[in-house]
Each structure stands twice: as structure tokens, then as C-alpha cells.
Protein: Polysaccharide deacetylase family protein
Organism: Mucilaginibacter aquatilis
Amino acid sequence: MIILSFDIEEFDMPFEYGKSIPFDEQLSISTQGTLSILKILKDAGVKATFYTTANYAIHKPQIVRQIIDEGHELASHGFYHSDFKPEHLLQSKAKLEEIGGVAVKGYRMARMMPVDEREIEKAGYVYNSSINPTWLPGRYNNFSKPRKWFYHQNVLQLPSSVSPLIRFPLFWLSFHNLPMGVIKMLSSATHRKDGYLNLYFHPWEFTDLDQPERFNFPKYVVRNTGEAFINRLSTFIAWAKGKGFEFSRTDAFVAAIQDNPILKK
């Protein structure tokens, strides 16, 4: 099983690199990328999960409705991408449910930062996918966290996928910088060990980020963005389907665990 997920958010990353970007451009770039993602998934006949900030949904409700209308899952990515308060957990869930007209069961913290699991449970989430169980210099060190799904505070925790043993992260930066053959090898090994892959990306990766004057991103961020990444993800999905791997929304994967008393233990 392969779970594809996308963090739909305000594109505020340039601020981390000393550049400013107007809010309308943040929304425009994320929307452009989201539409590219939806086309990739539609062409491949694959469903996915879209972790969306309430702030984005408020300004782009038509995109949220398109995500839902095309059969994908709507989950929470917080109220704002760069501002967090515990009350945002419930507030973002309520706003997304109001705009989308569907139940929101999952949460992912912006930038995979730590979040209080008791607050996650109190806000009514079924699962949390906010852990990257590896070491990312300058961000976090989660080597002590489980690699596979587990329960904590009555909430199912679904870490993003990392390889066995060395815990090489199978996240967005890897998909941009590694040769596709290496990505496929690591994906196969991890799927064989764990029985599933939980992969995540962002809409702005599917736009042209190689604009130093505008964004000032390092090469490892801009490599294979835009059309090149559209082709990379399309190629990966086609390869995975050819290998017999199935794709699932996160809520369906979680429901299968909850419905199986042996797995839930």
C-alpha cells in the first residue's frame, strides 16, 4: 500500500531564506501546484490525502471542493502555516469541515514539528501524521521514534516513511535529489519491510522554484521542481502500479487498522 499526501498551505518558505512574498502570490503558487497534483492523480486513477491549512481553505474554497469532488481526503495542516496555538487544532478542523462539508479525521503539523498528542485527541482527530522518524539537521532528531504506525494518547500515529536500518527519509527532498533508480530501490525495500509507504509532498514543488532572485532557495530545494517533478511523480506512480502496489487515502488505511482487532493491539 502506498499513501500519497500533500501539504496544501500558504507558500511562505521564501521568508526562511530572506525573501518576502505577497500573500496573494503565496496562494497563487500553491494553487498552481495543487492543480498539477490533481491532474497527475486523476490521470493515474489514484486517490490521496490533502493536509490543508484553514487559512488556505478560507481563501481558496473552490480548490478544497475540487479536492473532495475528485475523491480525495481532506485533512488538517493547522489554521496557519507559520503560526500555531493549541486552539488551532480544533479551530482548523471545524473550519475545514465547514468549507469542505466532510469529516476531517487527520492532522499534520506544519514542518513536522512536535505537537501535544493530548491536544490532538481533545480536538477529535483520529490520526496524526506529524512525525518524520529520522534526523534532519536544523529541524529535528526523531531517531528514537517508531518507524511504523503506533498508538499514542488514543490517536493513531502514522510517521512518514524512512528506510529500514539507516532511516533514510523517503520524503520530498529525496524525491528531488536522488536518482529515480535509488528512490525505487529504497521504496521497494521499505515497502517490503513495513507493508506500506507514507509519502508527503507540497504543491509548490510542482512549480518552478529555480528563481534565485525571487526565492533564494538552495540547489537541493530547487532541483527537479516544476515540470520535472510532475514527470518524476507521474513516473513513480506508474512504476509502483506496474509493481502491483496499491494506493490509498490515509483515512482508509487507518480505518483498516481500526477494523482489525489484531492489528490494533
Summary: The chain has one domain: 2-264. Residues 2-264 form a domain with the TIM Barrel fold (CATH 3.20.20.370). Residues 177 and 220 are 7 Å apart (CA to CA). The first helix runs from residue 23 to 44.
